[in-house]
From TrEMBL:
<dbReference type="InterPro" id="IPR003346">
    <property type="entry name" value="Transposase_20"/>
</dbReference>
<dbReference type="Pfam" id="PF01548">
    <property type="entry name" value="DEDD_Tnp_IS110"/>
</dbReference>
<dbReference type="GO" id="GO:0003677">
    <property type="term" value="F:DNA binding"/>
</dbReference>
<dbReference type="GO" id="GO:0006313">
    <property type="term" value="P:DNA transposition"/>
</dbReference>
<dbReference type="Pfam" id="PF02371">
    <property type="entry name" value="Transposase_20"/>
</dbReference>
<feature type="domain" description="Transposase IS110-like N-terminal">
    <location>
        <begin position="25"/>
        <end position="183"/>
    </location>
</feature>
<feature type="domain" description="Transposase IS116/IS110/IS902 C-terminal">
    <location>
        <begin position="306"/>
        <end position="383"/>
    </location>
</feature>
<dbReference type="InterPro" id="IPR002525">
    <property type="entry name" value="Transp_IS110-like_N"/>
</dbReference>
<protein>
    <submittedName>
        <fullName>IS110 family transposase</fullName>
    </submittedName>
</protein>
<dbReference type="InterPro" id="IPR047650">
    <property type="entry name" value="Transpos_IS110"/>
</dbReference>
<dbReference type="GO" id="GO:0004803">
    <property type="term" value="F:transposase activity"/>
</dbReference>
């Protein structure tokens, strides 16, 4: 059995303890009408729930009332429990932290469990405030400081890029759906008598494919042309499509179902708008990736680029979420924060049984870690250490997704050691040739490469051997 120095497993050495000289302030954050409650270390309510404004004057009201009660009861410290609501709690937390108070963030799951412990079906702001205060008394929550500076900017940019990539995928699926309904063989042309899977005539996302569909989106658009006109369009737009492809396009247009004339203009406009939207989102994604590179080269995560298979985007996604745990003293806490730790079940003399991963951490961090795990076990990236690890677990019957999670587990521990000891990628259990690769070719902008050189010099100066 694991040994603990306190029954409060969520606490670490940096967590503020509740003592007889502690004053507790519970805050239920909201966008427009947050509320607060003040009680002592025994849970006796000193100030009934009251509303305050989500601005400087409102926070000053909370500070004034709490300081008045602190002097009255002789408390020496103020401990705040706050249930976050989106990002609206962040200015309040920063202001209270600047006041010198300890601020503990509580997840909605914690307060829900406290309400259930009282067997209450009701949910009101006063009930939530009392649940928040009890969470503080029971040593729940985290006192991790809010992100600021480069890590906060990197996390914001990485999350925005990930959202844009999802939108890009949705738009691509819409375009594929429209092409299926208008000119199916753009995505699959089958020769007479051919049994193999049809081959696409055009890459819908390449420059050539996008220009061709812009000019000739529907089958009936070909009927006003001659075969030579296709070659003329090909040369005029410098598309470099082979003549054999043009022959197949001409054949496909001749046998395709025509779109009814009364709706043809609508389909043409629909495709045009979707491609405009796709172009806009693709440009945004590229700009976000430039921002990610500009920020990453100024952080210690530059060392992660020495990992074969890991590029700027993957490292930036992971480090933006990784930096949230600024007090992580072991990789085990990072695995827990990512929700990659397994559920453990055991009782009596039976050995513990390890189940599926908990999924109880940050979904952003989990997605970034699983993506990194998938990258390093991809044979195309030639990471010999993780390819050997994948082979071992594949022989044990694990699926590809399970192997990605295992690789993410291992990668967290290696990356944590790389940052802790200022080292390049060199797993201690590897007995083959050095695995670390040069990070410089992975930085594409000259100005960013100069920043990276300065960061790398500072990082390696304090290297521990």
């Amino acid at each position: 059995m694991a040994q603990y120095n306190t029954i409060h497993r969520r606490q670490d050495a940096a967590t503020t303890r509740v003592t007889p000289t502690t004053l507790i302030v519970a805050i239920d954050m909201a966008k427009y009408n947050p509320k607060a409650l003040i009680c002592d270390y025994q849970g006796t309510i000193l100030e009934a729930p009251f509303s305050f404004g989500p601005h400087q004057q409102g926070v000053d009201t909370v500070i004034q009332r709490a300081e008045t009660w602190r002097v009255h009861v002789g408390a020496t410290q103020v401990l705040v429990g706050i249930e976050p609501t989106g990002h609206y709690h962040e200015p309040v937390v920063r202001q209270l932290t600047a006041q010198g108070w300890a601020v503990r963030l509580l997840s909605p799951t914690m307060t829900a469990e406290e309400r259930q412990a009282d067997h209450r079906r009701a949910k009101t702001d006063p009930i939530d405030l009392m649940a928040i205060a009890r969470c503080v008394l029971n040593a729940r929550g985290s006192e991790q400081p809010l992100l600021s500076g480069l890590p906060a900017a990197l996390r914001a940019v990485s999350r925005s890029r990930r959202i844009m990539v999802r939108q890009q995928t949705r738009i691509k699926n819409l375009i594929r759906s429209v092409v299926d309904q208008t000119f199916l063989e753009y995505q699959g042309f089958q020769e007479p008598g051919q049994e193999a899977t049809p081959t696409p005539l055009l890459d819908l996302w390449s420059r050539a494919g996008r220009i061709w569909i812009r000019e000739l989106p529907l089958p009936q658009d070909y009927r006003q042309l001659e075969r030579a006109d296709l070659s003329l369009l090909n040369r005029r737009e410098k598309l470099r499509l082979p003549e054999s492809t043009l022959d197949r396009l001409w054949t496909a247009a001749g046998r395709a179902f025509p779109v009814p004339d009364e709706v043809a203009p609508v389909w043409r406009a629909h495709l045009e708008r979707l491609y405009e939207l796709y172009s806009t989102v693709t440009t945004l994604v590229a700009r976000y990736e430039q921002d990610q590179e500009a920020l990453l080269v100024q952080t210690e995560a530059l060392a992660w680029l020495t990992t074969p298979g890991i590029g700027v985007i993957t490292a930036a996604d992971a480090y933006g979420e990784w930096s949230t745990l600024t007090r992580a003293t072991s990789p085990k806490k990072l695995v827990k924060y990512g929700g990659l730790d397994p559920n453990i079940h055991g009782s009596g003399q039976r050995p513990d049984r390890y189940g599926a991963m908990s999924y109880q951490g940050s979904r952003w961090f989990r997605a970034a870690l699983c993506q990194a795990g998938a990258m390093v076990v991809d044979p195309a990236h030639q990471n010999a250490y993780f390819l050997a690890l994948a082979d071992r677990f594949r022989e044990r019957g694990l699926t590809r997704r399970q192997i990605d999670v295992v690789a993410a587990h291992k990668l967290v521990r290696i990356w944590w050691a790389m940052l802790a000891y200022h080292q390049v990628f060199a797993p201690p259990t590897w007995d083959g040739p050095p695995l670390a690769v040069d990070w410089r070719p992975k930085i594409h902008t000259v100005a960013h490469r100069r920043l990276a050189e300065a960061t790398w010099s500072r990082f390696m100066t304090t290297r521990t051997h």
